[in-house]
Amino acid sequence: MESIEQYIIFAVGKEEYAISISVVKEVIRLKGVNIAGVPNTRDHILGIINLRGEVIPIIDLRIKFNMTQRELDGDHRIIIVNFRDKVIGLLVDSVAEVSGIEPSDITKTPDEITDSRSRYISGIAKYENRVFIILDIGIIIGGG
Q: How many domains does one find in the chain?
């Protein structure tokens, strides 16, 4: 029997996404966080933050996924991830929960999905009558 893996579930736009909790260092509220802009960076890099002495670049997933921007509010969160010795913050609209998902409830991405976000998708999870798009954090951080 395969073990249940924990995922953090969050929203960007109207969709719910998930990433493995194994790469998540922490989740912070946007309120009170100063994001400093950095000139001449990719459009999806919102800026950098100083988190307890560590400078962390912030990726705006709305921009990365070619969605319209939304005014920042109290629901926004930054998910700090550590993947292959890179520490990056992901700006998301909200964080819902951490859930254990059975490997048997994760399917490969259907061939019919061909939009600009599809290259970031590593699978689709079914959980309590909901569907989550599981993101490939390596591609989000390193590619595209």
A: 1
Prediction pTM value: 0.90
Q: What is the pLDDT of residues 50-91, one digit of tens each?
A: 999 999 999 999 999 889 888 888 889 999 999 988 999 999
Contact present, 102 and 2 (Cβ < 8 Å): yes
Report the alpha-carbon distance of residue 104 to residue 121 in Å, rounded: 17
Q: Which domain holds residue 65?
A: 5-142
- Sole residue written with tokens 């019919």: 112
> How many residues make up the chain in this entry?
144
**Taking the CA atoms of the chain, what radius of gyration do you get in angstroms?**
15
**How far is 115 from 26, CA to CA, in rounded Å?**
30
CATH code (residue 11): 2.40.50.180
Going by C-beta distance under 8 Å and a sequence separation of 6 or more, which residues neighbour residue 43?
63
Q: Are 1 and 104 a contacting pair, CB within 8 Å? A: no
**Would you tell me how many other CB atoms lie within 10 Å of the CB of residue 112?**
6
